[in-house]
């Protein structure tokens, strides 16, 4: 069913996927941009799933990647019809939620409850029902099924089709998934236990019959850590106090009122931040906060447990009242209780942190706690353009030592890409903070490169913080990625940049642009990396390094060096998307020489001249 003439390395890659499936194993694959990983993973999986009555869950990080899988599915199944379906959450698909700012901020669980209520009300002919669900129930939706199975739409195309007919796309997809051999879903649908159970139920399959494909897998370890981490902010405590004024104060235990408890927690949070945090964050000794609470209220640990449990129960009641009013079933009192329940029960896989925002944070150090579920699948394949060192990925995710690991180089001509580095600047944290002249030098490099070429250039900074510090005036159209920029605004800006002939875009390494956007042909010809994107030495990061030292004996290599290499390669990977692209990268950091093994580096003493020579050659 392979729809193309195989390119360089594709026959070998296809073979790897096939043998992994037949051996019921796990595969980690690094293959450069343009090697056609998606189609190489998909075709053998579809063949195997059909022959052996298995189902495929293909998880992606972005909508663009999800679309790519659907496009490849259409190519593969041109002759043999196999049905595959994209899935996204209610936040993207529910037409009622889309127009409601309050509901748009809801978690999948909260939105699921809202949806269940609306559907129930619809069946009872209540005004608070859902007109889209009603249309699903009263019209002939078999036509939608036929159209979907014939056209294999992307999630946007299906949503559009349903919108024109007044139908609910989410409910349609839920029904369609039962027939799908392949489901393409965001990471959260597989790695969040609540959503995974929901997905497997919709698919009507056990996890042991799932062939899992993880796309852009380099994201998974950090994603898994964040899924298991949780914060308690000053705002949450303030909202909890507001909830008390709205729903009434109660005594939790030992004459401690909810309002008093929240007020005291606010004080403890601020006091802890002032005492421990000098820059970004700090570790808190294991029982410090519990002891503070107990001494403030003069209570025992048993009473503290009782207070926490009662707050959770009260929070559940608040949620129920809100739910009955058709509001988002959220309780901040519940959030405070749930956070403290976890805080008082964490083990050695977590650390307790206070940061400058201020927030308390329970940070998960071990991604395998959320990602290790991949071992329950029939087989799993993990692929990305940047996964080195592969053993770090295997160990972090918790895959078995027998996991097959392979790395393939870029299939495109080597001479079309040049990587330069300069030897007289760095963004090393200690040097940057001490020496203002380093910033000036970096600014001069950026100005000279950007102003000397009528080519599209992206400047990748290691952080938004450093980007803001720079004072750079350019005689060019300048585009700047803002921190937390809305997705649509970001996409519009990128499309406008791509149309330029000599535009400059300021972005960050490890961000949405460096990780997932294609810049084919002349839409991008030079990438400037302002320093190497080493992680900031925060308390959280040091704890992670220490944990990996204890667990694998490779703290620095796994948590400092590996992420920096991956982020660098992701930025450079934007440049060459096919065999005709010609482009160059410049790394403004002397530490780049440590990456000689991973990058074909050329030191330059005159970067503008060397770039000109390369483009004229
Ligand atoms: S049935 Fe569909 S449209 Fe109605 S609330 Fe649920 S997701 Fe939204």
Kindly summarize this structure in a few lines.
The chain has 29 helices and 20 strands. It has 617 residues and is of the alpha/beta class. It folds into four domains: 1-82 and 181-215 and 378-411, P-loop containing nucleotide triphosphate hydrolases (Rossmann fold); 90-101 and 125-178, DNA Binding (I), subunit A (Orthogonal Bundle); 229-313 and 334-364, Orthogonal Bundle (Fumarase C, Chain B, domain 1), CATH 1.10.275.40; 414-616, Rossmann fold, CATH 3.40.50.300.
Itemize the secondary structure elements and their pairings:
Blueprint: H1 10-22, E1 26-31, H2 37-52, E2 55-60, H3 63-76, E3 84-86, H4 90-93, H5 95-98, H6 101-104, H7 108-123, H8 131-138, H9 142-151, H10 155-164, H11 169-176, E4 182-186, H12 188-191, H13 193-203, E5 210-214, H14 220-228, E6 230-233, H15 234-247, E7 251-253, E8 256-257, H16 258-276, E9 281-283, H17 288-297, H18 301-324, H19 332-343, E10 350-355, E11 359-364, H20 368-371, E12 379-384, H21 390-397, E13 404-408, E14 417-421, H22 429-434, H23 436-452, E15 457-461, H24 464-469, E16 478-480, H25 487-498, E17 504-508, H26 512-516, E18 526-529, H27 539-552, H28 555-573, E19 583-587, E20 601-603, H29 607-616
Parallel strand pairs: 1-12, 1-13, 2-4, 2-5, 3-4, 5-12, 14-19, 14-20, 15-17, 15-18, 16-17, 18-19
Antiparallel strand pairs: 6-11, 7-8, 9-10, 10-11
The protein binds iron/sulfur cluster.
């Amino acid at each position: 069913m392979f729809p193309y003439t195989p390119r360089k390395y594709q026959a070998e890659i296809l073979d790897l996927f096939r043998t992994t499936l037949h051996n019921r194993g796990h595969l980690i694959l690094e293959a450069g941009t343009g090697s056609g990983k998606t189609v190489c993973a998909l075709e053998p999986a579809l063949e195997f799933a059909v022959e052996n009555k298995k189902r495929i869950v293909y998880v992606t990080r972005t909508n663009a990647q999800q679309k790519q899988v659907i496009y490849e599915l259409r190519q593969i199944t041109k002759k043999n019809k196999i049905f595959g379906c994209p899935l996204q959450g209610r936040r993207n698909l529910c037409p009622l939620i889309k127009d409601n700012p309050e509901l748009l901020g809801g978690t999948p669980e909260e939105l699921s409850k809202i949806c269940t209520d609306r559907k129930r009300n619809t069946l009872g002919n209540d005004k608070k029902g859902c007109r889209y669900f009603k249309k699903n129930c009263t019209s002939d939706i078999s036509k939608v099924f036929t159209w979907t199975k014939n056209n294999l739409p992307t999630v946007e195309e299906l949503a559009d089709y349903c919108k024109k007919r007044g139908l609910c796309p989410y409910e349609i997809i839920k029904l369609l998934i039962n027939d799908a051999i392949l489901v393409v879903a965001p990471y959260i649908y597989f790695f969040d236990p609540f959503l995974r159970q929901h997905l497997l139920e919709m698919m009507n399959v056990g996890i042991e019959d799932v062939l899992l494909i993880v796309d852009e897998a380099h994201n998974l370890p950090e994603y898994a850590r964040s899924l298991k981490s949780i914060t308690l902010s000053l705002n949450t405590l303030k909202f909890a106090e507001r909830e008390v004024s709205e729903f009434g104060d109660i005594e939790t235990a030992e004459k401690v009122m909810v309002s008093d408890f929240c007020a005291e927690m606010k004080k403890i949070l601020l006091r802890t931040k002032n005492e421990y945090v000098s820059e970004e964050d700090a570790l808190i000794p294991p029982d410090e906060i519990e002891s503070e609470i107990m001494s403030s209220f003069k209570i025992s640990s048993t009473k503290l447990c009782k207070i926490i449990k009662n707050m959770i129960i009260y929070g559940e009641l608040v949620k129920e009242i809100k739910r009955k009013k058709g509001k988002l079933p959220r309780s901040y009192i519940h959030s405070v209780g749930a956070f403290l329940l976890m805080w008082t029960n964490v083990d050695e896989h977590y650390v307790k942190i206070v940061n400058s925002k201020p927030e308390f944070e329970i940070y998960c150090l071990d991604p395998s706690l959320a990602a290790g579920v991949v071992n329950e699948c029939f087989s799993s394949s993990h692929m990305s353009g940047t996964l080195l060192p592969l053993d770090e990925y295997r160990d972090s995710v918790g895959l078995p030592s027998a996991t097959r690991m392979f790395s393939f180089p870029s299939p495109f001509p080597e001479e079309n890409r040049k990587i330069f580095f300069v030897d007289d600047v760095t963004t090393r944290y200690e040097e940057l903070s001490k020496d203002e002249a380093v910033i000036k030098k970096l600014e001069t490099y950026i100005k000279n490169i950007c102003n000397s070429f009528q080519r599209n250039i992206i400047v990748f900074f290691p952080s938004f913080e450093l980007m803001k510090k720079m004072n750079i005036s350019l005689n060019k159209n300048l585009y700047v990625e803002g921190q937390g920029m809305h997705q649509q605004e970001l996409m519009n800006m990128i499309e406008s940049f791509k149309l330029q002939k000599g535009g400059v875009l300021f972005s960050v390494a490890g961000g949405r642009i460096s990780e997932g956007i294609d810049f084919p042909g002349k839409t991008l010809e030079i990438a400037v990396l302002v320093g190497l994107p080493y992680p900031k030495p925060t308390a959280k990061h040091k704890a992670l390094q220490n944990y990996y030292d204890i667990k694998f004996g490779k703290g620095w290599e796994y948590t400092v060096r590996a992420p920096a290499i991956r982020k660098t390669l992701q930025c450079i990977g934007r440049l060459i998307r096919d065999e005709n692209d010609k482009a160059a990268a410049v790394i403004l950091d002397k530490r780049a020489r440590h990456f000689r093994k991973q990058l074909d580096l050329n030191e330059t003493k005159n970067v503008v001249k060397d770039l000109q020579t390369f483009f004229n050659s």
